[in-house]
Design brief:
- The complex is a heterodimer of chains A (about 110) and B (about 120).
- Chain A has about 110 residues and is mostly beta strands.
- In chain A, about 0% of the residues lie in helices and about 45% in strands.
- Chain A has a five-stranded mixed beta sheet with strand order 1-9-8-3-4, with no helix packed on it. In chain A, strands 2-7-6-5 form a four-stranded antiparallel beta sheet, with no helix packed on it.
- Chain B contains no helices and eleven strands.
- In chain B, strands 2, 4, 5, 6, 9, 10 and 11 form a seven-stranded mixed beta sheet that branches. In chain B, strands 1-3-8-7 form a four-stranded antiparallel beta sheet, with no helix packed on it.
- The chains are: A mainly beta (about 110), B mainly beta (about 120).
Chain lengths: ~110, ~120
């Protein structure tokens, strides 16, 4: 079972920031938070991951709360092409059998013009 | 750099038949994972291979099998197809296996859409 909970859907205006929340209250100390997205009819695309520090790359920023029980993916300037299902995943690194990606239902982000 | 290549893109099979799907990982990637995606169950992990060895397996019946070759290419096979096997089958590659302390994301292919009639 997925160890994260996300809202079912959200929308935002093009050009504005999209803030996608994720709860992972049972996260363990050795589990990372990963974000992937899936645009219709394509394979999931890796966005970003983090352990406890905030992370930023060319696609997005990841903000993890101090207690690590929740996180927020931020798309700073959403475009229509960011319309997709976004998956928040917690995953162990370094322990073999338990480190596979377990996808939940994700959150559908709709970017409106 | 070429991405993950899955062939074929679309496939239609009849119940009872068997099918083989192929995945070529990104050059240099040695780990290949397979996922099944259906509208009802979402994305579900099938298995992972690294250096021709299965390292991890999901909760699927024995009709689902896979293998990896020395060049890291992987195939998955489904025997005695059932209507419920209709799905998008996705392959993902990564530099290292998921248990080796890697901090890398997976790169997914576009998938093979299998329809069983």
């Amino acid at each position: 079972d997925a160890k994260t909970t996300q809202p079912t859907s959200m929308d935002c205006a093009e050009g504005r920031a999209a803030n996608l929340p994720c709860n992972h209250s049972t996260i363990s100390g050795n589990e990372y938070v990963y974000w992937y997205r899936q645009i219709h009819s394509q394979g999931p695309q890796y966005i970003i991951h983090g352990l406890k520090n905030n992370e930023t790359n060319e696609m997005a920023s990841l903000i993890i709360t101090e207690d690590r029980k929740s996180s927020t993916l931020i798309l700073p300037h959403a475009t229509l092409r960011d319309t997709a299902v976004y998956y928040c995943i917690v995953r162990v690194a370094g322990t073999g059998a338990n480190s596979k990606l377990t996808f939940g239902k994700g959150i559908t982000l709709s970017v409106r013009p | 750099k070429a991405g993950v290549t899955q062939t074929p893109r679309y496939l239609i099979k009849t119940r009872g038949q068997q099918v083989t799907l192929s995945c070529s990982p990104i050059s240099g990637h040695r780990s290949v994972s397979w996922y099944q995606q259906t509208p009802g169950q979402g994305l579900q992990f099938l298995f992972e291979y690294f250096s021709e060895t299965q390292r991890n397996k999901g909760n699927f019946p024995g009709r689902f099998s896979g293998r990896q070759f020395s060049n890291s290419r992987s195939e998955m096979n489904v025997s005695t197809l059932e209507l419920g096997d209709s799905a998008l089958y996705l392959c993902a590659s990564s530099l290292l296996p998921s248990g080796a302390g890697d901090n890398y994301g997976y790169t997914f292919g576009s998938g093979t859409r299998l329809t069983v009639v």
